Amino acid sequence: MATQEKTPVENAQLKDIISHAKEYGFIFPSSEIYDGLQAVYDYGQMGVELKNNIKNLWWKSMTQLNQNVVGLDAAIFMHPLVWKASGHVDSFNDPMIDNKDSKKRYRADVMIEEKAAQYENEGDVERAKALTAEMGRLLEAEDLNGVRELIIREDIKCPVSGTANWTEVRQFNLMFSTQVGSVAEDASTIYLRPETAQGIFVNFLNVQKTGRMKVPFGIAQIGKAFRNEIVARQFIFRMREFEQMEMQFFVRPGTEMEWYEKWRDTRRKWHEAIGVPTDKLRFHDHDKLAHYANAALDIEFEFPFGFKEVEGIHSRTDFDLTQHQELSRKKLQYFDNDLNEEGKPYGNYVPYVIETSVGADRLFLMVLCSAYTEEEITEGDSTKSRTFLKLHPALAPVKAAILPLTKKDGLPEKATEIFDSLKYDFNMIYEERDSIGKRYTRQDLIGTPFCIAVDHQTLEDNTVTVRDRDTREQVRMPISELHSYINKAVSYRSIFEQLA
Ligand code: ATP
Description:
Layout: H1 12-23, E1 27-29, E2 41-43, H2 45-64, E3 69-72, H3 80-85, H4 88-91, E4 93-98, E5 105-107, H5 108-121, H6 125-140, H7 144-153, E6 170-173, E7 177-180, E8 188-191, H8 197-202, H9 204-210, E9 217-226, E10 241-251, H10 256-273, E11 281-285, E12 295-303, E13 306-315, H11 319-328, E14 334-339, E15 345-349, E16 352-359, H12 360-371, E17 372-379, E18 382-389, E19 400-404, H13 411-422, E20 428-430, H14 436-446, E21 450-454, H15 456-461, E22 463-468, E23 474-478, H16 482-490, H17 493-499
Parallel strand pairs: 3-9, 19-20, 19-21
Antiparallel strand pairs: 1-2, 4-5, 4-6, 7-8, 9-10, 10-16, 11-12, 12-13, 13-16, 14-15, 17-18, 21-22, 22-23
The chain binds adenosine-5'-triphosphate.
Adenosine-5'-triphosphate binds at residues 195, 227, 229, 238-239, 242, 244, 309-312, 357-359, 361-362.
């Protein structure tokens, strides 16, 4: 079994983020005491809260805000024919190549793309474009030998051995398979789903009929997906077990571009509303479309290792439903009773589909990277640096910390009383160890938006100080106002309002 390789860290910032995530309980390597398992990670006590908040926000943005979008939770295991119909059995491949000296395996297309990026960084944009185009042509024609020759011609070397002693390029299917059934002879091969979307397609009519849904409508799903990625690098950016949040929106054929644009704009607003700076987001239209798509784009975020895909928006035509209709021999059509210009019903058709597909883990990494802040603070003559997570309060794992100034004089009791009155609505931390300054620092490091200090004055007039994570400013307010003060900042409402 492969063990956790040291993540090749592209730059210092990513390295800092990875160790921050580990040190403060966001992300641990899987099975770490056994040296880890490559490209698999566990979310710790802070990570699980942040991830749940991201998923919850996405879920509510889809289902609660849109009357015509409903949810689904399909199984990970599906009938093997599902993956035949979807094309995954035959063509969910990546071209791989091995270096004979280091025995390391690489994705041939990624190595060429990296070479092209190098040309671009050096200012030779034309050469970069020509190289990517040539690779596109070779892959399209399934000319794997040509891809190998291109790697050799470009003098691409293995970063480990430093040689160009390459094997042939081979196609490698990314699906994990396993056996169902206890008796070997009867057992049949099934797959761990490589995407959640197919669970939605095969349930299209179940949901449409039982929910009395009218086209246009959407089905949203959050769930695990598995891909045997050849090169798994860059921390949780590319994992072998990950979570997707996908929504398939079923529309009348001919109206798909209108909906494609609508969902593209909605998703753009969503990313901006959770606090990602606009200059860190890029919308990249696909030059080359998959055979079933008639429009597609990636929403990219500028990670420390460059602009990379976080979410895909795809106009998938009627490809998937038609494929499932053919293999299952069950009709997957919708009867559209609405009237056309001539006053006739539109009748039966297989709906077209707009898909929004985002990885929960990639979103997590995006949120973490954009929140990770280091700043210099000058106090009097001295300057010190501070690291904090500038998370949107709605996403922060802990909403407030209740901190009695000292461990005596009845302050812990008063603080506990405040904690108990707020805990029904907010995830909070109560802490009385160490100096107040140290406790503030600990909360900054996990991104807690508010620190509530309980001091002797609290006992006299029922007021507390509330320290703001980002400005470090403190305001004094009555305990009775705490609930609405915190709630205003942490509720999803401010985000939802920006999506309207
Ligand atoms: P990439 O080009 O990065 O391999 P993809 O185009 O294969 O991604 P899709 O199949 O469109 O990705 O999947 C939709 C989303 O699922 C991606 O935008 C990404 O956020 C997430 N995703 C896909 N593969 C992984 C992975 N191995 N680890 C984490 N997230 C992933």
